[in-house]
Amino acid sequence: MGYILRNPRHELYAQGIAAGLSRKEASLKAGFKGLVRITPAITQRVTELLRNSAKRSEFSRKEVLDRIVQDWDLGRKLGQVSSALKAAELYGKEVHKMFVDRREVGGPGDFDGKSEEELRQIIQDEIKDLGWDADATIPPDKSLN
Q: pTM to 2 decimals?
């Protein structure tokens, strides 16, 4: 556990910066007329606040995943198949990137007249959007036609 800065306005400034405010916004919110002179103590406090925020965020994610697993088990024990399946789906999507929602790209005729290179680029962009391996490529010797 860290410490709070002795100067309450510096503490408010550090909290503002950690919350994502610009230097100007944080300065004004803390009651300063101009930009705050950054001291090592302020820098350390901002770092600490950001670290604590990240820890809470990760804990929250873990807690949610734990509860999904508990709900999955409970749904199975109670014979509530749809509840158990939904919990399994949520867990699979988050942890294993399974059960990806599929969507169609483009309308009828949108790809007519596109060169093979343009089609490859469209596919590569969609692969990235899905969060798959960004380095995945379609071998040039494989025809798309």
A: 0.43
